[in-house]
Amino acid sequence: MPFLSRLALFPLYMRWQLWLVLLAILLTATNSQATERWQRSDVLTQSFMEVALKREYRLGKSEPLVRWQGPLRVKIDSQLGNTRLQHQLARVQLKHLASITGQPLSFVDSSQKANLRVAFISHDHMSREAAKYVGKKQVSTAGMRKALREGVCLTLFKTAADHSINSGLILIPADYARQKARLVDCIIEETAQVMGLPNDSGEVYPSVFNDLSTDTWLSPLDYLLLKMLYAPELAPGMSVDEVRQALPGIISRLTAKGELKNAVHRVRSGSLRDWLDE
Asked: Looking at the record's lineage, which domain of life comes first (predicted)?
Protein backbone atom coordinates (compact mmCIF):
# COMPACT_ATOMS: atom_id res chain seq x y z
CA MET A 1 0.00 0.00 0.00
CA PRO A 2 1.44 3.48 -0.87
CA PHE A 3 2.70 5.57 2.05
CA LEU A 4 0.03 8.28 1.66
CA SER A 5 -2.73 5.65 1.59
CA ARG A 6 -1.39 4.07 4.77
CA LEU A 7 -1.13 7.52 6.38
CA ALA A 8 -4.86 8.10 5.78
CA LEU A 9 -5.66 5.18 8.08
CA PHE A 10 -4.16 7.01 11.09
CA PRO A 11 -6.30 9.34 13.23
CA LEU A 12 -5.85 13.03 12.42
CA TYR A 13 -3.82 13.85 15.56
CA MET A 14 -1.47 10.94 14.86
CA ARG A 15 -1.02 12.15 11.29
CA TRP A 16 0.01 15.59 12.56
CA GLN A 17 2.51 14.01 14.96
CA LEU A 18 3.98 11.90 12.16
CA TRP A 19 4.30 14.94 9.86
CA LEU A 20 6.08 16.86 12.65
CA VAL A 21 8.54 14.00 13.15
CA LEU A 22 9.22 13.83 9.40
CA LEU A 23 9.71 17.61 9.26
CA ALA A 24 12.17 17.51 12.17
CA ILE A 25 14.18 14.78 10.46
CA LEU A 26 14.24 16.78 7.22
CA LEU A 27 15.39 19.98 8.96
CA THR A 28 18.10 18.11 10.86
CA ALA A 29 19.43 16.60 7.64
CA THR A 30 19.37 19.99 5.91
CA ASN A 31 21.25 21.72 8.73
CA SER A 32 23.80 18.92 8.82
CA GLN A 33 24.46 19.23 5.11
CA ALA A 34 24.72 23.03 5.38
CA THR A 35 27.58 22.84 7.91
CA GLU A 36 30.84 22.28 6.10
CA ARG A 37 33.71 20.41 7.72
CA TRP A 38 35.89 23.52 7.80
CA GLN A 39 33.23 25.39 9.81
CA ARG A 40 33.59 23.04 12.79
CA SER A 41 35.38 24.48 15.80
CA ASP A 42 37.65 21.45 16.19
CA VAL A 43 38.71 21.58 12.54
CA LEU A 44 39.41 25.33 12.71
CA THR A 45 41.47 24.83 15.87
CA GLN A 46 43.53 21.95 14.52
CA SER A 47 44.05 23.66 11.15
CA PHE A 48 45.29 26.83 12.84
CA MET A 49 47.69 24.91 15.08
CA GLU A 50 49.08 23.17 12.00
CA VAL A 51 49.71 26.17 9.75
CA ALA A 52 50.48 28.88 12.33
CA LEU A 53 52.58 27.07 14.92
CA LYS A 54 54.51 24.54 12.88
CA ARG A 55 57.16 25.13 10.27
CA GLU A 56 57.65 23.55 6.89
CA TYR A 57 60.76 21.31 6.74
CA ARG A 58 60.92 21.15 10.57
CA LEU A 59 58.70 18.13 11.17
CA GLY A 60 57.14 17.70 14.58
CA LYS A 61 58.44 20.97 16.04
CA SER A 62 56.12 23.75 17.17
CA GLU A 63 57.14 27.40 17.35
CA PRO A 64 55.73 30.54 19.01
CA LEU A 65 53.05 32.46 17.14
CA VAL A 66 54.34 35.01 14.63
CA ARG A 67 52.57 37.82 12.80
CA TRP A 68 53.08 41.40 11.69
CA GLN A 69 52.39 44.09 14.28
CA GLY A 70 53.32 47.18 12.30
CA PRO A 71 52.31 48.34 8.82
CA LEU A 72 53.53 46.46 5.76
CA ARG A 73 55.59 48.50 3.31
CA VAL A 74 55.91 46.47 0.13
CA LYS A 75 58.41 46.74 -2.71
CA ILE A 76 57.51 44.70 -5.80
CA ASP A 77 60.72 43.88 -7.62
CA SER A 78 60.15 42.56 -11.13
CA GLN A 79 63.37 41.36 -12.74
CA LEU A 80 61.97 38.85 -15.22
CA GLY A 81 58.71 38.48 -17.13
CA ASN A 82 55.70 40.76 -17.54
CA THR A 83 56.38 43.58 -15.08
CA ARG A 84 52.97 45.24 -15.39
CA LEU A 85 51.03 41.99 -14.85
CA GLN A 86 53.22 40.92 -11.94
CA HIS A 87 52.71 44.25 -10.19
CA GLN A 88 48.96 44.09 -10.72
CA LEU A 89 48.64 40.52 -9.43
CA ALA A 90 50.77 41.17 -6.35
CA ARG A 91 49.02 44.43 -5.50
CA VAL A 92 45.51 42.99 -5.73
CA GLN A 93 46.47 39.98 -3.63
CA LEU A 94 48.23 41.97 -0.92
CA LYS A 95 45.38 44.47 -0.68
CA HIS A 96 43.01 41.53 -0.29
CA LEU A 97 45.08 40.13 2.59
CA ALA A 98 45.23 43.56 4.23
CA SER A 99 41.45 43.84 4.07
CA ILE A 100 41.04 40.41 5.69
CA THR A 101 43.60 40.89 8.46
CA GLY A 102 43.20 44.62 9.07
CA GLN A 103 46.93 45.18 8.65
CA PRO A 104 47.92 48.61 7.25
CA LEU A 105 49.58 48.27 3.84
CA SER A 106 51.43 50.57 1.47
CA PHE A 107 53.59 50.14 -1.62
CA VAL A 108 56.99 51.81 -1.76
CA ASP A 109 59.44 52.43 -4.59
CA SER A 110 62.70 51.34 -2.95
CA SER A 111 63.98 48.34 -1.00
CA GLN A 112 65.35 50.68 1.68
CA LYS A 113 61.83 51.84 2.54
CA ALA A 114 60.31 48.35 2.39
CA ASN A 115 59.93 45.70 5.05
CA LEU A 116 58.50 43.18 2.57
CA ARG A 117 59.98 42.54 -0.85
CA VAL A 118 58.17 40.49 -3.50
CA ALA A 119 60.77 39.53 -6.11
CA PHE A 120 59.97 38.05 -9.50
CA ILE A 121 63.32 36.61 -10.54
CA SER A 122 64.97 33.86 -12.55
CA HIS A 123 64.91 30.35 -11.09
CA ASP A 124 68.72 30.31 -11.33
CA HIS A 125 68.90 33.23 -8.91
CA MET A 126 66.81 31.70 -6.10
CA SER A 127 69.72 30.54 -3.91
CA ARG A 128 71.64 33.76 -4.44
CA GLU A 129 68.69 35.96 -3.43
CA ALA A 130 67.89 33.78 -0.42
CA ALA A 131 71.52 33.94 0.74
CA LYS A 132 71.50 37.74 0.52
CA TYR A 133 68.55 37.80 2.90
CA VAL A 134 69.33 35.07 5.46
CA GLY A 135 73.04 34.44 4.89
CA LYS A 136 75.00 31.65 3.22
CA LYS A 137 75.07 29.55 6.40
CA GLN A 138 71.28 29.44 6.65
CA VAL A 139 70.88 28.65 2.95
CA SER A 140 73.22 25.68 3.37
CA THR A 141 71.05 24.00 6.03
CA ALA A 142 69.22 20.81 5.11
CA GLY A 143 65.79 22.41 5.44
CA MET A 144 66.64 25.37 3.23
CA ARG A 145 68.31 23.20 0.61
CA LYS A 146 65.19 21.04 0.51
CA ALA A 147 62.94 24.10 0.20
CA LEU A 148 64.97 25.44 -2.70
CA ARG A 149 65.14 22.05 -4.36
CA GLU A 150 61.52 20.95 -4.00
CA GLY A 151 59.51 24.16 -3.86
CA VAL A 152 58.45 26.31 -6.77
CA CYS A 153 58.47 29.57 -4.78
CA LEU A 154 59.89 30.56 -1.41
CA THR A 155 58.85 32.74 1.52
CA LEU A 156 61.34 33.94 4.11
CA PHE A 157 60.81 36.27 7.05
CA LYS A 158 62.62 37.57 10.10
CA THR A 159 61.20 38.30 13.53
CA ALA A 160 61.97 40.72 16.33
CA ALA A 161 62.66 39.70 19.94
CA ASP A 162 58.91 39.61 20.64
CA HIS A 163 58.36 37.23 17.64
CA SER A 164 56.59 39.85 15.56
CA ILE A 165 57.52 39.70 11.88
CA ASN A 166 59.60 42.74 11.00
CA SER A 167 60.71 41.87 7.46
CA GLY A 168 59.91 39.40 4.71
CA LEU A 169 61.05 38.22 1.31
CA ILE A 170 58.96 36.37 -1.28
CA LEU A 171 60.91 34.82 -4.13
CA ILE A 172 58.90 33.89 -7.21
CA PRO A 173 60.92 32.42 -10.11
CA ALA A 174 58.83 33.86 -12.92
CA ASP A 175 60.26 31.53 -15.57
CA TYR A 176 59.89 28.32 -13.56
CA ALA A 177 56.50 29.28 -12.07
CA ARG A 178 55.02 29.97 -15.49
CA GLN A 179 56.50 26.74 -16.82
CA LYS A 180 54.71 24.88 -14.02
CA ALA A 181 51.53 26.99 -14.48
CA ARG A 182 51.96 28.14 -10.87
CA LEU A 183 52.50 31.89 -11.13
CA VAL A 184 49.14 32.89 -9.64
CA ASP A 185 49.29 30.01 -7.13
CA CYS A 186 52.70 31.21 -5.94
CA ILE A 187 51.54 34.79 -5.45
CA ILE A 188 48.49 33.72 -3.45
CA GLU A 189 50.13 31.08 -1.27
CA GLU A 190 53.39 32.88 -0.53
CA THR A 191 51.77 36.20 0.36
CA ALA A 192 49.36 34.38 2.69
CA GLN A 193 52.25 32.52 4.33
CA VAL A 194 54.29 35.66 4.92
CA MET A 195 51.40 37.04 6.99
CA GLY A 196 52.29 34.46 9.65
CA LEU A 197 50.93 31.13 8.46
CA PRO A 198 54.21 29.56 7.33
CA ASN A 199 53.47 25.84 7.34
CA ASP A 200 52.02 23.54 4.70
CA SER A 201 50.01 20.56 5.88
CA GLY A 202 48.13 17.74 4.20
CA GLU A 203 45.73 17.76 7.17
CA VAL A 204 44.39 21.23 6.34
CA TYR A 205 41.80 21.34 3.57
CA PRO A 206 40.44 22.91 1.49
CA SER A 207 43.41 25.26 1.63
CA VAL A 208 46.28 26.81 -0.30
CA PHE A 209 48.43 25.64 2.63
CA ASN A 210 48.03 22.04 1.48
CA ASP A 211 50.57 20.95 -1.14
CA LEU A 212 48.43 17.92 -1.97
CA SER A 213 45.48 20.15 -2.84
CA THR A 214 44.63 21.62 -6.23
CA ASP A 215 43.33 24.83 -4.64
CA THR A 216 44.59 27.97 -6.37
CA TRP A 217 42.48 30.56 -4.59
CA LEU A 218 42.20 31.38 -0.91
CA SER A 219 39.53 29.09 0.48
CA PRO A 220 36.90 29.99 3.09
CA LEU A 221 39.04 28.07 5.59
CA ASP A 222 42.11 30.16 4.66
CA TYR A 223 40.03 33.31 5.14
CA LEU A 224 39.08 32.19 8.66
CA LEU A 225 42.64 31.20 9.54
CA LEU A 226 43.84 34.69 8.59
CA LYS A 227 41.02 36.23 10.64
CA MET A 228 42.01 34.06 13.60
CA LEU A 229 45.71 34.94 13.25
CA TYR A 230 45.04 38.68 13.53
CA ALA A 231 42.44 38.40 16.28
CA PRO A 232 43.11 40.82 19.17
CA GLU A 233 43.11 37.88 21.59
CA LEU A 234 46.39 36.64 20.08
CA ALA A 235 49.85 38.17 20.17
CA PRO A 236 53.26 37.30 18.72
CA GLY A 237 55.28 35.00 20.94
CA MET A 238 52.30 33.12 22.38
CA SER A 239 52.99 29.44 23.03
CA VAL A 240 51.06 26.46 21.71
CA ASP A 241 49.10 26.17 24.97
CA GLU A 242 48.33 29.89 25.12
CA VAL A 243 47.06 29.90 21.54
CA ARG A 244 44.96 26.78 22.06
CA GLN A 245 43.30 28.33 25.13
CA ALA A 246 42.46 31.52 23.23
CA LEU A 247 41.01 29.92 20.08
CA PRO A 248 37.56 28.88 21.41
CA GLY A 249 36.75 32.46 22.31
CA ILE A 250 38.03 33.73 18.97
CA ILE A 251 35.98 31.18 17.02
CA SER A 252 32.87 31.99 19.06
CA ARG A 253 33.29 35.69 18.31
CA LEU A 254 33.83 35.09 14.60
CA THR A 255 30.76 32.85 14.57
CA ALA A 256 28.65 35.56 16.21
CA LYS A 257 29.86 38.08 13.60
CA GLY A 258 28.75 35.76 10.79
CA GLU A 259 32.29 35.11 9.58
CA LEU A 260 31.89 31.32 9.46
CA LYS A 261 28.48 31.47 7.85
CA ASN A 262 29.53 34.00 5.20
CA ALA A 263 33.16 32.99 4.64
CA VAL A 264 32.41 31.55 1.18
CA HIS A 265 31.25 34.96 -0.03
CA ARG A 266 33.56 37.18 2.02
CA VAL A 267 36.75 35.46 0.89
CA ARG A 268 35.98 36.48 -2.70
CA SER A 269 35.36 40.15 -1.98
CA GLY A 270 38.28 42.14 -3.41
CA SER A 271 40.14 38.93 -4.22
CA LEU A 272 42.49 38.12 -7.05
CA ARG A 273 39.97 35.52 -8.14
CA ASP A 274 37.33 38.21 -8.65
CA TRP A 275 39.85 40.51 -10.30
CA LEU A 276 40.71 37.78 -12.81
CA ASP A 277 36.99 36.92 -13.12
CA GLU A 278 37.56 33.23 -12.41
From this structure: Bacteria
